[in-house]
Amino acid sequence: MGLRAIADFFEENGPAKRCWNSPWVGAPLWLTAAYFAYRWHHSAPPTGYAIGALATVAGIMSIREVKVLGKILWMILLVFFLINEFGAIDKDRADYAAQQKAFFDAQQKGFSDTAGELQIAIHALNQTLNQTHPT
User: Which one has a higher pLDDT value, 10 or 114?
Assistant: First the structure.
């Protein structure tokens, strides 16, 4: 395949453009995106994944030639990915708050245990001092 054949394939109204804009490419792209939107709606993705998917869908929308119904369907996906990203951010913040609470609770327990042990040691030291050096 020569350079001319490659150039013809990718020309403005060539086979590549017709293929890219066909429903045979558009439907699987949309269904794949819809699968992730649905899946992430029920199980929040890590922060940033849904916004990356949103950007990808927006990019696909910007270079595909679609009818009004197609635009509406792609916009619905954009909204779902935006909602998914908000959910991921909320989940990330809640997880972080729970981790911090567990960490601080463990620290507090450790400090309380240490303080209790120090009180026992001070009491024992005072008893020893009172026994060895009566006033």
Answer: 114
Q: Residue 118 sits in which domain range?
A: 3-132
Q: Residue 88's CB: how many other CB atoms inside 10 A?
A: 20
Domains in the chain, number: 1
Please provide the average confidence, as pLDDT, over all residues in the chain. Answer: 88
Please report, rounded to a whole number, the percentage of residues in the chain having pLDDT higher than 90: 49
Residue 134 has pLDDT above 70, yes or no: no
Q: What is the 3-state secondary structure (H, E, C) of the chain?
A: CCHHHHHHHCCCCCHHHHHHHCHHHHHHHHHHHHHHHHHHHHCCCCCCHHHHHHHHHHHHHHHCCCCHHHHHHHHHHHHHHHHHHHHHHHHHHHHHHHHHHHHHHHHHHHHHHHHHHHHHHHHHHHHHHHHHCCC
* Cβ proximity of 19 and 13 under 8 Å: no
Residue 18, number of CB atoms within 10 A of its CB: 11
Q: Look up tokens 């649905």; give the residue.
A: 38
pTM of the model: 0.70
Q: How many residues does the chain have?
A: 135
